[in-house]
Specification:
- It is a single chain.
- With about 260 residues, the chain is α+β, with helices and mostly antiparallel strands.
- Helix content is about 30%, strand content about 15%.
- The protein is built from six helices and eleven strands.
- The strands form four sheets. The chain has a three-stranded antiparallel β-sheet, covered by helices on one side.
């Protein structure tokens, strides 16, 4: 899985280097597939998502046939399968290599949410804590940015209880990963009455993938319209906490802006 993650991370970096305004999404998909195969991966682990502009706000979009525009973001969710094991990475970056102020603001929010989610990973801690940690950061940010009307909620907990975040973040923060991209296993402790969240144990492999998706709508600040961002990494629980398996995929704003559009090495 570590090798699958490394190959997949290299593929995301390749797509970033190749990206230019005016390209079709499928051209970046071809870069991913080439990098998978040239490094010995037998297959993509799932149908790659290359979603630019408004397509990034569509979960599981995979038509990959739109021409990418200057000033837009592209969200790529792609991973390879190597010797029966899957990787699953998402990166989001500006097609022209420079985040706008609004894009950078939301990107840094999602990055902070992922960092909080990582902090919830340790043996004995509940699986649900990963999502709860990410959601708290995201909703705090949504309130600060006016995506959620602060006049209606005293705090993030109230907004979460009312599901005010769902128009902008409608999925969980991860899933099991292994011999399938959504691997088998319960997220609840079936041996305990009431089925509370399953405790994490060393050796569990999972994804951590917060996101934010802003479609046009009444009361939604226009500078954020059509921005869809997800950041996803693969993690294994260790005795002391966790290990990230997909660190080869560039993720910081500085790394991304230094790489996008720079051509293949």
């Amino acid at each position: 899985m570590l090798r699958a993650g490394a190959i997949s991370g290299q593929a995301h970096a390749r797509a970033m280097r190749a990206a230019r305004p005016g390209m079709f999404e499928y051209e970046l998909e071809a870069e991913l597939l080439y990098e998978f195969r040239r490094n010995g991966a037998q297959f993509p682990a799932y149908t790659s998502i290359v979603a630019s502009g408004p397509n990034a706000c569509v979960l599981h979009y995979n038509q990959n046939d739109r021409r990418m525009g200057d000033g837009e973001l592209v969200l790529i969710d792609a991973g390879c399968e190597l010797d029966g094991y899957a990787a699953d990475i998402t990166r989001t970056f500006p097609v022209n290599g420079r985040f706008t102020d609004a894009q950078r603001t939301l990107y840094q929010l999602v990055l902070a949410a992922q960092s909080a989610a990582f902090g919830a990973i340790a043996p004995g801690r509940p699986y649900s804590g990963i999502h709860e940690a990410a959601l708290q950061v995201l909703v705090d940010g949504m309130l600060d940015l006016g995506l959620i009307d602060r006049s209606r909620y005293a705090n993030a907990d109230d907004a979460i209880a009312d599901k005010a975040h769902v128009p902008f973040y409608m999925h969980g923060t991860g899933h099991w990963l292994g011999m399938d991209v959504h691997d088998v296993g319960s997220y609840r402790d079936l041996a305990v009455p009431g089925k509370p969240s399953r405790p994490l144990v060393p050796g569990m492999a999972l994804t951590v993938e917060p996101g934010i998706y802003v479609r046009p709508g009444a009361g939604v600040p226009e500078q954020f319209w059509h921005i869809g961002i997800r950041i996803e990494d693969d993690v294994v629980v260790t005795d002391g906490g966790y290990r990230i398996l997909t660190g080869s995929a560039p993720k910081s704003v500085a790394e991304i802006e230094a790489l996008v559009g720079k051509g293949q090495a």
